[in-house]
Amino acid sequence: MPSVTQWNHPRFFAYFACTGSTPAILGEMLAAALNTNGLHWKTSPAVAELEHVALGWLRQWMGLSDEWFGIVYDTASVSSMHAIACAREFVAPEARVEGSRADLILYTSEQAHSSIEKGAITVGLGQNNVRKVPVDAEFRMKPEALEALVQQDVAAGKRPCCVVATVGTTSTTSIDPLTQIAPIAEKYKMWLHVDAAYAGAAAILPEYRYILDGAERAHSLVVNAHKWLLTPIDLSAFYTRRRDILRRAFSLVPEYLHPNLDPRATDLMDYGVPLGHRFRALKLWFVLRYFGQERIQKILRTHIQLAQRFAHLVDADPDFERVAPTPFSIVCFRYKGTDEQNKKMLDTINATGRVFMSHTMLNGRVAVRLAIGNLATTWEDLLETWELLKEAVRR
Length: 395
Ligand SMILES: Cc1ncc(COP(=O)(O)O)c(C=O)c1O
Known about the structure:
seven-stranded mixed sheet; alpha/beta; binds pyridoxal-5'-phosphate; 12 helices
């Protein structure tokens, strides 16, 4: 297909590779055919109810308690933007009526996804009020640096508002230390949001449950099904322990949208910017029903094992080096040459059309990212990729 990049291909290793699985594709088609809009409970009760069921299963599988209320948005960027709006409502409820003053501060690490800063721009905190907390040698937020920045801001008369910690950063999949960040957020009465857009799915594995240690003290968390949960773009699961704050931040009901219903029914329009609510949860429900917890665990483990094996290849080759730990299914590495040579290597292998990979910058140097997330990826695909890389540097 000309001009269509095959994101569903087993050798698509760029960004966060993801599988649009068959059940999810059918769920997507069915949602389009039904064309329901779940803005109110009564406008299609199944939309709200099935979303509740599917997000409840995912929550339980990730080991989160039933304190968490879930809602589906399109992307993690939008989920985190809603979290930042909640933070504003939590710390500065007057802002809903009066607008933000320029004194609310958001803290996130230097390695956080750009969507966090965009969220702060959109919600009106302003880019100048985003603090990028330094990271340690393994690209994790330094809690002591976070607290020092907060103290400086308090001394300067600012209002610390929100901390966004990342579980699985975009460049290297590093894990911010939630158990140390949560007490700081509590001490300064800030909203704590966890961006687990990619790696949150790994918490479905008992041996990876620890990645969400401390998340039970956070106020909100996002995990994308369209990253590592077999679901085609888009589906972002947003959870909050403060459903009341989310509602307070976003509910605005004109007469023509009065639900006239039992107040216990969830009207999804009250929990976010969009009025209309697509039946996105149907495809996630299909995925969770079709694969089941054990099969999903097996798939995640396979991806992690493939990444570990590839990391060993890199480590064993004197011409290459790994430039970050490999906790999940992403391997960050570079050819031991110049940035230009690394960029050329990447361009060369991508130009073959056999494989697609992307890059990042780490400690001022170009690093290549190999992201595994496709159901059909095999060890042979990785061996072929490795050969292509070595051939590209020999040229
Ligand atoms: C950690 C993290 N957060 C947020 C995002 C944004 O995701 P989305 O495209 O769903 O907005 C990404 C995308 O890669 C990400 O890696």
